[in-house]
Amino acid sequence: xxxxxxxxxxxxxxxxxxxxxxxxxxxxxxxxxxxxxxxxxxxxxxxxxxxxxxxxxxxxxxxxxxxxxxxxxxxxxxxxxxxxxxxxxxxxxxxxxxxxxxxxxxxxxxxxxxxxxxxxxxxxxxxxxxxxxxxxxxxxxxxxxxxxxxxxxxxxxxxxxxxxxxxxxxxxxxxxxxxxxxxxxxxxxxxxxxxxxxxxxxxxxxxxxxxxxxxxxxxxxxxxxxxxxxxxxxxxxxxxxxxxxxxxxxxxxxxx
Length: 256
What we know:
Elements: H1 3-10, H2 19-28, H3 30-37, E1 39-40, E2 42-47, E3 54-59, E4 65-69, E5 75-79, H4 89-97, E6 108-109, E7 112-113, E8 123-124, H5 132-137, H6 172-178, H7 186-191, H8 207-216, H9 221-228
Antiparallel strand pairs: 1-8, 2-3, 4-5, 6-7
Helix pairs in contact: 1-3
């Protein structure tokens, strides 16, 4: 059952409940309401067994990048999914068009949705998808400017891309090059303004950590240590942003 549908099945109209009934309902079904209250981003990529077709889907302020090596072993990359963020004009305008003009000063604050979120699409976050009464009656400690539905969307963006149609100016190419077997030293200097080291984590490396390390710090051990644990320095570096990321890989082909 869809996350939001589970809430609506329990309580299609919160206005019909008094405070005691609401509290009892939330306490009894805490997991359901917690999932609906919380939110997350998602990227999915599915490759067929012949490796001829690739299907991707993404929600929120993240993307999916197709990377490959050329005959010289240099990496290339192509962005496949657009970002769903308030920084994207199409998303910004789309959210504003859904709401009356009286909300024009509250929908976007500091370039964030209701002053709190950058993503305009995601899984969960149903206080920003349901009518405001769900926030005032069922969800607690939420942004106070929710008036009409809905501010956050969960619709995917579908695109049809030819992998050969490369746009070399796309930032996704940076990721592609960092995933190659080797790299021209001048490239990271001109794009990241620091040197990088390919395969620095060894044979059984964590590719995600290696990629993030090269993006954030490159060969600077001091910067990389700060990236891993800024609190050790006694202060938070506002230039660095940290988020929890989970990567799941499933092999859908039958193993011999």
